[in-house]
Design brief:
Blueprint: H1 6-102
Length: 103
């Protein structure tokens, strides 16, 4: 066998390089595609977590609002029973006493 010349070696190296470029590109594409799929999956998971957190926050806020409304109702009942009802009973006693004294 004869040894190839420098020009021949150069041509062979270019052919090998072209072949490697053809075969490497699908691998690189597949890797990039997989990375993109993974990133999309991570973003979906983050979005789902944020959505769940927002729903939980809204649920807690609604519970707090209902608890506050219940407390207000209880406070109104307490004001009535602690202040208004005794005053009304006092006026009723005074009325009955005044009516009884005049009769």
């Amino acid at each position: 066998m004869t040894d190839p010349s420098n020009g021949e070696l150069w041509r062979l190296m270019q052919q090998i390089s072209a072949r490697l470029d053809r075969f490497a590109a699908p691998d690189v594409y597949a890797y990039q595609h997989q990375q993109l799929v993974n990133e999309i999956a991570e973003l979906r998971a983050e979005l789902a977590a944020e959505k769940a957190a927002a729903e939980e926050k809204a649920r807690r806020a609604e519970e707090e609002r209902k608890a506050l409304e219940l407390r207000r109702q209880q406070d109104r009942r307490m004001v009535f029973t602690a202040l208004i009802a005794p005053v009304l009973l006092l006026f009723l006693q005074l009325y009955l006493t005044a009516r009884g004294a005049g009769a």
